[in-house]
Amino acid sequence: MRETLTFLLGAFTIILFARPVAQFLHIPILTLYILFGILIGPSGFGLLSELKPLQYFYHLGIILLMFSAGLELKFKIFQKNKKKLLIFYFLNGLIPGIGGFFVGIFVNKLLNLTGYSLPLILGSIFISSSVGIIVPLFWEFSANLDKEMKTFSSLIIGSTVMSDITSLFLLSGIITYHTTGNIRFLGFFTIFTILFFLIVFKGLPVLQEKLSKILKKPSLMVEEQTRILILLLILVVASGELMHIHPIVGAFLAGISLANIYINRRVLHHINFITFSIFVPLFFITIGAETNFGVFREEANLLFPLVICISLIFLKTLTGFIGAIFMGFPFKKAIGFGFSTIPQLSATLACAVVGKELGILPEPVFNSIIILTIITTFIGPVIARNLLFPGMKHHESEFFPIEEYIHTDIKPVFLFDSLSKIVERIQETELSIYPVVDKEGVLKGVIHLEDIKNIILEEELDKLIVAEDLLDTSYPFVFREDSLERVIEIFKKTKTSALPVIEEMEEGGVYMGMILLRDILPERL
Known about the structure:
The strands form two sheets. Strands 1-2-3 form a three-stranded mixed sheet. β4, α18 and β5 form a beta-alpha-beta unit. The chain has 19 helices and six strands. 64% of the residues lie in helices and 6% in strands. The chain folds into two domains: 2-388, Na+/H+ antiporter like fold, CATH 1.20.1530.20; 403-524, CBS-domain, CATH 3.10.580.10. It is mainly α.
């Protein structure tokens, strides 16, 4: 008990001061937690030797981490530039994954091991990249990015999301094969996994909505919704385990299925507080404490981190570079984009932890992957920032993205919708303006409620008037990567109560949702 309390005291102390320290050192905050764990573990001062009492924090931390990672995914990023997205996914995800598999074959030979579990785990790790590192890197300079760079950064983020999903599904298959040793069962597992994914993806939002209606109480709404999300998470994870789907994959699926419904931002704050202020830091600190660099005192073991790190950095940088050249970027920027894809963190550590627990990854390989995450999360953003944004100023002061305020559930009117279709949409919301998009989803303007009040009852006008006839093309809009401060300034200047949110893509400004003044009024204005 004394050792556990000592650990918790040290852990919450570093959690309290981690953000300013990470900003000062220019490293991701999660990497800092790993480094702190290394310091208190056997590779550091040896203050923590017994980790069993922390296993509950450890497992809940990785489940919540995967759930939150899933919640960050918005499927609109897959709806545009599909061809280029798939090409970059193949280049920067699947090709490194194949390379990782052959690196695993080489590692097997060094360790005199047989079988394909270790090569498949390394292949899964080489597929993934860290969305949590890549997104802030591009948002940091989003105000200065041109259209081409915004479009390509969206492709990188989209392909990274697809790669993480692929990595975790592959991991789940590896677990099933390793625990059953039955290739026929693996075929059944694939079918069950697809069915499970469809059930979770389609059914979970419906279940969440029904539970919310049953338990809705104005004074407890935020708390009840938070409990509902946690309950649904546990339900999905428990159900997945019955089908031999690993908890981290189930948690990731639960997050993905709920990512594209509107969730009260205060509920998200609660989830983020529980996840990133308590359990995820404890999970990363525990991983650091489990790291034992003493294995590298044997010179033969030094080859493992060298081979794994150099191979991944080379493959990710090369394939990212080729993708950027294909998009027409100059040599220097193409290398910068290549380095932006090398950070490894959440999905990589999930694979490493599971691989170690199953006995697939020997200690030297597990510790090599920890080294990989520390190196790539540091050098990737630093090199990419210097090559892609030399001399550019990042967002001054702390950057508050508007992502969590966007109402993705507010559907647009289409350009050639009839008057009756417009009226249907008006009945679904209580706005004074309604976004209008073309068939590609590009925002063309808005319709004002005032403009249709006088003609709404004229039946004969239904087939004569379409949305395009009522369009206001001068209405202001904001970009998805804009800061909250910029959005507030636009609200003040335009005296509006709602603004369309777009993402700059090849087709133009694609509609993403609406941001409402009432959501930010109590906190910022």
